[in-house]
Design a protein that fits this description.
CATH topology: TIM Barrel
Shape: globular
Number of strands: 8
Radius of gyration: 16 Å
CATH superfamily: Aldolase class I
CATH architecture: Alpha-Beta Barrel
Length: 200
Amino acid sequence: MAELYAIVGSLQRARFMLQGRVPYVQLRLKGQPLTPLESEIRELVRAFPASKVVINDDLDFAVRVGAWGVHLGQEDLARYAPETVRGAPVRVGISSHSDEEIARALSYQPALLGFGPIYPTDTKALKHAPQGLERLRQVVSRIPLPIAAIGGIGEDTLEEVARTGVALVAMIGYLDRITRPDTLERLIRRLNAPGDDVQP
């Protein structure tokens, strides 16, 4: 039904997700400069070609390390001319939380659109109210791009989010508690075969 999009805060967690064959892994190393980690991240990208590594916030860095893509927040768009984003040699994902932000994101011609928060979450200070499933369905039905649902998605809500037709289910906090490869494997399967139990 949908693919797992893991958002991680360290290279250690990124490697765990990539070893577990998570299809999309976004590096969101907040407060940590990326340049000193450039060689390590480049090696990580090369070591796991079957997965798509996405760099948070920094388009130029994503290009340098050969990442599959970059994810930009609405505030990041001011740093780049629209033609720079449109012509980027990596795939660009853009966060959105409202119709206005969706319209702005689409003007940059991204490869995918992040949408949320779907539920309340404590992994990030929220500037926008939770959107809910019905709003997510509306966005999926009218936007001709892969949509990554994000925000407060966990074990109890994983399947209902996937059933909205989203291409990607982004998870942060719940994934942080998973330490066993077999648990991660079951979680990935569950997106396509609802009913498996997943315990961190």
